[in-house]
Design a protein that fits this description.
Elements (H helix, E strand, L loop, with lengths): L2 E6 L13 E7 L3 E6 L5 E4 L3 E4 L8 E3 L6 E3 L3 E4 L7 E2 L3 E5 L5 E3 L2 E8 L8 E11 L6
Antiparallel strand pairs: 1-13, 2-12, 3-10, 3-13, 4-5, 4-13, 6-7, 8-9, 8-12, 11-12
């Protein structure tokens, strides 16, 4: 079963003083997390100029965060399994096995999604992510 998660460029920006991610659901350790965003779904990011970009972010424009670990493309969608302590790149398509995170219930972790940016105030728009999980990887 999949769910639609709306990630706002401003409200869910990593550039806010206190970041708040969009809730992507609760998943079991060991399951395979699948996140997809349409290439045509875009938000506006003003990082070195105004850019309308999809969840892959601004090509060739890596930006660090002053308060958070990591360096990703400006405006890319990122995820966290530990409440925003560490991040991984999502982009328009992600498939990964959940190996760790902050356990919230048994062997479950919460997924949160964000817009990676250094200045949330000049962001506009939102991108919808379709999130699902599989118990195991399909055989090849």
């Amino acid at each position: 079963m999949s769910q639609k998660v709306i990630v706002h460029a401003r409200d869910n920006s990593t550039g806010k003083p206190q970041i708040t991610g969009a809730s992507g659901g609760r998943y079991a350790l060991g399951s395979v997390l699948v996140i997809n965003c349409s290439d045509d779904d875009e938000w506006e990011i003003s990082e070195g100029g105004l850019h309308e970009v999809n969840a892959n972010g601004v090509p060739d424009e890596l930006i660090p965060s002053s308060a958070l670990p990591g360096e990703f493309q400006a405006g890319c969608m990122v995820g966290s399994l530990d409440g925003g302590q560490t991040f991984f790149s999502v982009g328009t398509c992600l498939r990964m096995r959940i190996l760790g995170g902050t356990k919230v219930e048994g062997n479950q972790v919460d997924l949160t999604l964000y817009c990676w940016d250094s200045d949330y105030e000049n962001n506009e728009g939102r991108i919808t992510a379709t999130v699902s999980s599989e118990v195991d990887c399909p055989s090849s």
